[in-house]
Amino acid sequence: FEGWKILPRVLADYELVLLLKGQGQIVIDDVQYTVEAGDLICFKPGVKHSLWVGQEPCMLFYGLHFEPLDPARSIPFPDVLHLDAPIRLTALFQKLHEVYYAKAYLYEWKQSLLLQQILCEILSILHEKEEPAGSRRIRQVLEYIHEDPCRPITLEGLLRQVGIQKTEFIRIFRTVTGTTPIRYIIDRRLENACE
User: Terminus of the chain with fewer CB atoms < 10 Å: N or C?
Assistant: First the structure.
């Protein structure tokens, strides 16, 4: 609601806030951000922060407090991450919300699994944002190969799929996988045969 605020505080655990609607202001370590729908905020342990809503449109959000599986390692999330289409992440937060309030059979295990899925999804989003366009195309090719490595796959067919020149494609593919496209396909087929 308008005028809602969290005064400066420091948490002992992590908190993720996924904004679904509206906007607000946050300060993390004396840096001010305007956040809006589609933003993910990560409040880290021991870091001073505050949050407030000055005026309409007010914020609707999911908030999630958690402790990492390995307390010795920090989670490499930025303070604020803008998500272009947080559909999968929103669905995971919603499912966690449902599991938490239903308190049904094995709900603590389900919560733990959903938390891990949320963290994994955020890491995937970060990786995609930082990934060069060429590597992204190679990842799509790898997904295509993994769908059914035993079907007929040609280098020419892969080149048509990604729209990159042959020498550039092979160079990027080798950088990402450590091998050539043909060797990669053969290795996947051998793995399939062994299974």
Answer: C
